[in-house]
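Ticket #4471: complex job returned nothing on first submit. Input attached below:
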Amino acid sequence: MLQRKRARLAYFLVLPAMVLVVLLNLVPLIQGVIVSMQNQNLIRPNPEAFVGFKHYIRALTLDDEFWQSFARSVWFTVASVTGAYVLSLGLALLLNLDIRARGLFRAVFLIPWVIPDVVTALLWKWFYSDQWGFANFALLKLGVIQIPIQWLSDPSIAMISVIVVQIWKLYPIMTVVLLAALQGVPKELIEAAKIDGANAVQRFVNVTFNFLRPTSMIIVLLGCIWTFQSFDIIYLLTGGGPADATQTLPTMVYVKAFWSSQLGYASAIGVLILLTLLFLGSVNLGLERMFNRRSDGNG
Amino acid sequence: MSKFNMTRRQAVALSAASMFALGSRGVNAAGEAELSFWTVRLNTPELQAALLPLLDQFMAENPGIKIINEPVSGNQVYPKFIAAVQGQQMPDVAEAYSYHPLQFAALDQMEIMDDMIADWEKDGRLADVVNEFAYKKFFWKGHYWGVPYNADPRAIYYRKDLLEAKGIAPPTNWDEFQAAAIALHDPANGVAGVGFPAGDFHITQHFYMGFMFQAGGSILNEKGELVFGSEKREQNIRALTYLTDFATKHKVTPEGIAAWNTDDAHTAFVQGRLAMGMGTGRVIGQIMRENPDMFEKVGILETLQGPEAKLTAGFYNPMFVWKYSPNIDAAKTFIRWFTTPGRLAPIYAANPGQHWPIFKSEFDTQSIRENRLLGEMLTKVIPYMTDFAYPGTGIPEMGVIDGEKLFAAPVNEVVVGVKTPEQAVDDAHAKMQEIFTG
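Support reply: We reran it on our side without changes. The output follows.
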């Protein structure tokens, strides 16, 4: 009886949080799915007319722009997350050593993370400027290049330039998380491996990385989700150009919804982004289970 | 006669309900008509400092109306208005981008403004408007859906000192402009012949549009039908080729213009890196603030005479009223007051060059007489300004064509070398067609 009362009290206490979660997450999600199946073209009458999967069929079978943007989103995500992970792993290993001013370095490396995206985009736009940007200035002065590089206006370079910015934005949080995981690696295991004759690479691969793997999978998954839906940096740096070279799905959704007034179509693309990310999450979960089973088998 | 009995509690409840009912129908507890007024282009600190006293003045002169101003950030304009339409929480009155009234009219959200235009005709204001397209652009399906309150020109600025040093007169037509850009290009001294935004941004299409009109091209015909890549294909290709040749053939622009947005072009000119630069009216204020020594060395070119016409692209920004506002009459009273010639002088003065009058009678003012560049813009550019839908009146589809940057893309694609002008125009036309048929 007492237990039931306590359970009721617990439900009552979590009710406000549940209401908030439903109102702020579930309702917009359901609304988004509903809108994706409605006409919702703001220059056409009857916006709430039901059109079924028309917008989905258009995106998946008729609109080249969707698949081109999807491919760019995948490239942007894979390159950014890989680059950020490798960089942050290196930094985390370095900051885990007993070096001088370690605390200061840890704070400094966090700076890009706390800078708002809009400011980040403006800083890098200045950095990349062909006329007065620091990147070209430094490379010209050092004699590395003879003419300024068109970082943001050359279609073959623009995406790489944007990826560099995304790596800069992503690596601090990855570093912090990996560093925390590194500090949980038992020193005695590393010592034991050393005594058994394992070199530094073998110790890292067979001992340290085993402990980092679960954390790495989570941080890589989160990095992929954040990057795949990243909008501000690309939109502010290039607007999706030059010649659509940096147009990804989130920038396409923005243009279709708010400039093109096609709310229904934009919502359908939004739902497809959600499904892609759910798929990515499932793959991650599957891999994690597979590794866990292997570990259990080995154990 | 029946006796009406009411307890104290019922009386309190009835009063509260009446107050709520009054409030919810746009009338506040003081019995004033309460107008929500969303502003999109009047939100910088200096413009707000000029606007708020005007609103106070209106309320003092119209004691029955209270204005509640809500600035809407430029980045949030579409999301906010769209959410407002969905939730039926539109402002009673607003000033915003030029295609908003027609897009919202297509959604049955706009109050017809024919009576206001008729009033303007009666009191002579209509004849005083600098260009008839300023109000005709809001005419669609037999009605006016908004009235203009300001002009927003696009101009070509030039360095008088550099032209004089080379003995070149300010160009007035395409051939002279091209020759001047080539002659003035001086990369050794860090000065490019001409600069314009060619990034994948809205501003890029504004300058292409000017050259398009000058070549006899357009996006629509007089009936509002799409002719960009059909009847007007050759003219539009000619304009695109002429503009992009500065970057690809003559190579007299800075290398990176394919990533330039509005501010990049403005800054390059104000910093002295361009002999001639294309920009909005804001360049004037930027010169005055950031490089005042340059002011006397700068001029504004007369609108170029193209092969077919002497026209330039520009905007006339509207005020409009929500059809379901409980205070439509008060909203129109406010717009009539706000658009009275001479009323907005403090706004024009707040940031010189950002907002421009639409009435000819406002051109000869003290602040304009004291600022040579303002005067040059008013005489050399604004009289030749027309809008995207020219030679037709506005249609909602133009808002989408503009919004999707469908005619910025050709400039960007040709400058970066991924398409020829012919391919770029044809591809843009195909995308525009989807909007008309979709």
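The first strand of chain B starts at residue 33 and ends at 39. Closing as resolved unless it happens again.
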